[in-house]
Amino acid sequence: MDKRLFEKKYFLWRSFTFSGYISRGQFWSEIAMRIIGFFCATIILCIVVSVAIPADTERVVALVNILLPILGLIWLIPIIALTRRRLRDGGYSAKSYLWLLIPGIGLIAFIARLCSGTAKRKPEEVWFEYD
Q1: Residue 129: pLDDT above 50?
Q2: Alpha helices of 1-131 — where are they, by DSSP H?
C-alpha cells in the first residue's frame, strides 16, 4: 500500500482529520460530493448484488440491508470530521452537535452554525491548510 495516501496533502488523510479548519465553500462542496458519491455507491452496490444473485430477490434484499448500513458508516466518519472542522472555523465548539438532539429547531440551528462565516482569530493561530 502506498504510504503517500496518508500524508496530509492526500485525500485519505484529509477525510479522516478532525483538526484544522475548512471554509464554507470547501465544506459544502465536499458535502455535496460525498452525498452524490454515496448515492452512486448505493446504486452500484445494488446492481452488483442483484447481478451476483439474480434469481433470489429475498437474498438480494437481505444482503443489501446488511451492506448498506456498513457503507453508510464508512461515509459518515468523514462527514463528521468535515462538520467538526467547519464548526471550528465558525468559532463554535463540538458542543454544537447537541443542537441535533432538539427535534426540528435543533437541526435548523445546527445548519445555521454551519452556514456562519469564518470567525476572527488571533494572528498566532495558524490555519490548517492543505498543499
Answers
A1: no
A2: 11-15, 24-52, 57-89, 105-115
